[in-house]
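Section 5.1 Outputs to date
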Amino acid sequence: MKTFTKMIGAALLASALSTSAFAAEKMRVSLQLPLKSHLGQNLLVFEKEVEERTNGEIDVEIYDSAQLYKDKEVPQAVGSGAIEAGVASLTRYVGDVPAVDLFYMPFLLNSEEKVRKAVSKGAPIRSAVEEAVADTGGKILYWQAYGGAILLSKGGPIKTPADLEGKKVRVFGKTLGDFVTAAGGAPTLISGSEQYLAYQRGTVDVGMTGVSGVKSRKLWEVMDTITVTNHADIEFVVVVNQDWWNGLSDEHRSAIEEAAQVADDAVRNAMSEIEAEAYKAAKDNGMTIYTPTDEEIEAWKSVSSPVYENYKKAAGDLGEKLMDEANKL
């Protein structure tokens, strides 16, 4: 009888342990970039911090390289609850919140100091953007720096708008499309995960991305020149489903927020080094790096006024508020 009781006790203990392990809350995160990209590596930092701070009670699963969703699909997937979390370019929210494209306004946030002030936790610009995005069903957990926007080409640099005239250009947002149109080019919206094939097949003549993406996607295999315009600040955001978030305990939410701040700071502080390494990798793999002269940058700025007008019309009161805050920087 005692032996039987011991067996029952052991079985109940094993069942309890199994149930406890099974009960770990899954937090699936969709990422369009490869895990080796700096955004992927940053998510690994986040995963480690979350699982340590929650003693494994939150199990973070990263699905990289657009295994589950492309960048453009993430806002809807997260907002609907189809997945707990995802990483998306901030401009993917422009349909619901046109004001988010403040970061893609040509040469507006044109220094690291300005960007840091704009995206620091509690800053007016960041707070207003996060509040607006929350209305879509997604909560911005933290921001991932991606650096400045550059141009990619074959056979020579894109020095001025005259070099862009009549060319098809890959863009990843409406305002960047307006910038290309104003410069005389033809914008084509292409997801980040589809870039390589678009360049390889000649779907577009000119690329637009961050230099870190050149390294992680080996774009030197399909393009040979980088023009360092830095005409926009590229920001990605890690977004969680609002209902899923509200269903967590206060303790778990606090732990995840602490982990998010660690990851947010880590990628922001490393961005300069990440870009420097990516430029070196591009050069080592045969790419030409061209930095426009001051006169050439002025030529780009001079064609950008329609972009600002379009933004003001589309973004309304929130856009006006964000522009005022950006100009204060």
